[in-house]
Structures are given as structure tokens and as C-alpha cells.
């Protein structure tokens, strides 16, 4: 499995609706509210053969209330055995 993160800018007043929609879709392993430039941060896992760009485009960005996303692809988790 390949982990990656997506930061979300939500339309005004839509952060909780977006977080709930992500949770109900059961596609994110963790969802956090955040302060700063983005409203939410979610962690996803996909199979090695899954195209992350297509996954984000087809499963994530279609959720109503999302204004913008920023995808972060990671390479190594430190301190994990």
C-alpha cells in the first residue's frame, strides 16, 4: 500500500460537510481539521498499482464543498518498524 496525504481548502462554511463526506465515503484512513492555509488534512492508502492522480481526481475532488486540494506524496516513514 502507498500512503499519501491531501490538504483541503473548503468553501466557506463547508469544512465539516467535507470531512463528513470523506468519512462516509470510507476512502481516507485519517481526517484532521487544521489551522493555516488549509482546512483539512487527510491520509489515504492506495494499492501500488493505483494511479494517485486519478484516485484524487475521481474519488476525492468530486466531493461537494472542496475549493482546492494539495496532494503530498511521501517516500519514507521514519521511526516506523
Describe this structure in words.
The structure is a single chain. The chain is of the alpha+beta class and 81 residues long. It has one domain (2-73): Alpha-Beta Plaits, CATH 3.30.70.920. The protein is 25% helix and 35% strand. It has 2 helices and 4 strands. A 4-stranded antiparallel beta sheet has the order 2-3-1-4. It is globular.
Feature tags:
alpha+beta; 81 residues; Tscrpt_reg_AsnC/Lrp_C; four-stranded antiparallel beta sheet; Transcriptional regulator; 25% helix; 2 helices; Alpha-Beta Plaits; 4 strands
What is the strand and helix layout of this fold?
Layout: E1 2-10, H1 15-25, E2 30-33, E3 40-46, H2 52-60, E4 66-73
Antiparallel strand pairs: 1-3, 1-4, 2-3
Domain Transcription regulator AsnC/Lrp ligand binding: 6-76
InterPro entries: Dimeric_a/b-barrel, Tscrpt_reg_AsnC/Lrp_C
Protein name: Transcriptional regulator
Poorly predicted runs: none
CATH hierarchy, class: Alpha Beta
Query: What is the radius of gyration?
Result: 13 Å
Which sequence of SSEs, written as H and E, runs from N to C?
EHEEHE
The number of E-state strands comes to 4
Level of helix content?
Answer: 10-25%
Put simply, the count of helices is 2
* N- and C-termini, Cα separation: 15 Å
CATH architecture: 2-Layer Sandwich
Give the overall pLDDT as a whole number: 96
Tally of structural domains: 1
Name the CATH superfamily classification.
Answer: Lrp/AsnC effector binding domain/regulation of amino acid metabolism (RAM) domain
Structural class by SSE content: alpha+beta
Beta-strand level of the residues, as a percent range? 25-35%
Question: How are the strands of the largest sheet arranged?
Answer: 2-3-1-4
Described by strand count, sense and barrel closure, the largest sheet is: 4 strands, antiparallel
* General form: globular
What is CATH's topology name? Alpha-Beta Plaits
Amino acid at each position: 500500500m502507498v500512503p499519501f496525504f491531501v490538504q483541503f481548502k473548503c468553501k466557506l462554511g463547508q469544512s465539516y460537510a467535507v470531512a463528513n463526506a470523506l468519512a462516509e465515503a470510507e476512502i481516507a484512513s485519517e481526517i484532521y481539521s487544521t489551522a493555516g492555509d488549509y482546512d483539512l488534512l487527510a491520509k489515504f492508502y492506495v494499492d501500488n498499482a493505483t494511479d494517485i492522480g486519478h484516485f484524487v481526481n475521481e474519488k476525492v475532488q468530486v466531493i461537494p464543498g472542496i475549493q482546492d486540494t494539495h496532494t503530498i506524496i511521501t517516500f519514507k516513514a521514519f521511526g516506523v518498524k
